[in-house]
Amino acid sequence: MKLATYKDGTRDGQLLVVSRDLSTAHYATGIATRLQQVLDDWGFMAPQLQDLYETLNNGKARHAFAFDPARCMAPLPRAYQWVDGSAYCRDTVPEQAAIDLVMYQGGSDDFLGPQDKVVCASEDFGIDFEAELAVITGDVPMAASADEALEGIRLVMLANDVSLRHLAAEELKTGFGFVQSKPATAFSPVAVTLDELGDAWDSGRLHLTVQATWNGRKVGMCDAGTDMTFHFGQLIAHLCKTRHVRAGTIVGSGVVNNVGVENNGQKEWPKGYSCIAEKRAMETLLDGKATTEFMKFGDTIRIEAKGKDGQNVFGAIDQQVASLNG
Asked: Rounded to an integer, what distance in angstroms lies between the CA atom of residue 110 and that of residue 129?
């Protein structure tokens, strides 16, 4: 099934069930009003939502209405925990080894909806998009294995984990984690259950193309499954080494990317990039310096993933960068 949350003036919004083709929706009010309620009692509520989903897809839901992504909050508008991994080995950064799994704890109190603006105080911060995958978990116990952790995944969605690269460079000098350089993260209009993904979901990896379009120009068509060094079960298990992971935790994949290929002795990245920092790293390797600038006020970024039928699976993140002062 596919679930979304509409804006209703509250912090947690109103839970919707959305049709497979993202054309229609139905309030889940008779079952649950918020997604966190469902995650807390998944075994009881998920089958009821599934029944409503099937009724909606069959055109028999009495109070169905047209689905409007512009009215969406993040599927889970605020979460108990948001942790982002680095599941992909970037061959544009030679010193980064694929041996170590790295994760950071992000802010989870103020997520953005798929069409909310990326508001920033200054262009000088180095504004960058990051096209990622993310999963929402149920309860996963401390010391869970990677296979056990996979069983705890409830929903999958897309993320734009915005980074402020120039601030990040300053924070790295301190030796502490990222705080100022990680503003609010945006998520796709809908979050989907694993059964909706079919054979595209394989052992914790999603084999779909994540497409990034910057200012109307397609810059990335990266296969999310091929070069994912650590699958989602491993990411969650890494988190579980020291703590219980509770229902409503969101775990990100890190920037989706693919390794380069050799062409006549020259390395190329035919599938493009999912963040500007990746593009700048490519330029540095090829030309000795980075020339692509970071995002400016008024820039747009669109992130989506389409199935084999060409249909959007999660809906699109479609945002504009805006000044804090309007």
From this structure: 17
